Amino acid sequence: MSFTQSFKLAIKSLRTSKARAILTMLGIIIGVAAVIVIISLGNGLTGMVEQQVEKVGINQIYAYNWGFGGGALALDAQDIYDLVEERPDVFVGVTPWVSAGSGTRKGSEKYEKTSILGVSEAFYNPELSTTLDGDQLAKGRFLSYVDVWQRHNVCVIGAYLEKNAFGGDALGQGIIVGGVPYTVIGVMRQGSELMEEGGGDDVVYIPYENALQLSGTRQVQLFQLTCTSRETSGLAKELLTELMLDFYGAQYTESATTFMIQTMAEQVAMINSMMGVAMAVLVAIAAISLLVGGIGIMNIMLVSVTERTREIGIRKSLGAKRRDIRSQFVIEAGTTSALGGLLGIGFGFLLATGIGTLMGGMLVESMGASGVTFNATPTFGAVAVSFGVSVGIGVLFGYLPANKAAKLNPIDALRYD
Question: What's the predicted TM-score (pTM) here?
Fold first, then answer.
């Protein structure tokens, strides 16, 4: 019997018992749909991370400068600036990050959750019109070189503070930061749809030297550097590591928590690696449904062999060989699982698209990732693998019943009632 004839017989058998066929396929349908949904959501999250990185820049490096002796001995910011000036072929710029606590005041109104961050003029890229975090200016200008080095009492505020403290008109107005009057010279564009106190839009940027004075320390614990390209980030990390080791001494390594240097490319690789592990675990859990579906196919095929024992005896008496009987039942099992796989793919596609539509906005909002989209569309690879696995499971679990049918004695099979 040819493959085409066996396939037609398999379809006829499925159409004869539609309810039983659907119940048999159910495990395959659920397993395939779950795998596609998980892979689609994972790809959507990976795409969000990549988009966010593109906004920030893959050529960024973060140098953590904790020092030792309770921070009493730590690398000075000027040493980092000197290195950047010495290697313009590797570095584009550097900005210290200084957290000066939280809390501002406008008149009698206090905004206790407003973040106060000290940065340099390099935090804003005028060519791209964005900060190193990918945020944009809505009004005014950002801190300049003169503002930073002459410690001018000027600041750039977030959209939340402008709306709530200034009624939407903050440029040139005064605000109290750490008990010191500051003049607002710029306003950042709203980054999230739902602005809230203490959120990403509730922030004040001031010159980092001013922030050091407010925090009562001279130590900058974090530097954000920009490399000329992604390819030079490795060399940049080597140069920074060498500078840190020369200052702290060879006995103080990154494991001694005196400093740590990490490139954005490394952070992305680490995030993708963790997401890959999580996805693999979830896919493995979802694959249990495929195993259950395979057992269901085996069970129903054993029942089918029992029901069609007399038919098998007749075919054998007419000259059918073992391989003919075996291939017929294997093809029938494979057809059952293949149809279940196709239904699972369709269901998984609809479910992944629906979840992506419903949850995409929530994920983007929770991450504060403005301008980033979430796309949970299944990939061709996920669909192909899911379909291939479903067919493979049907063939694998259908072989035992098929082999049992092939070994039946034709005389005993004809006597079966």
Answer: 0.64
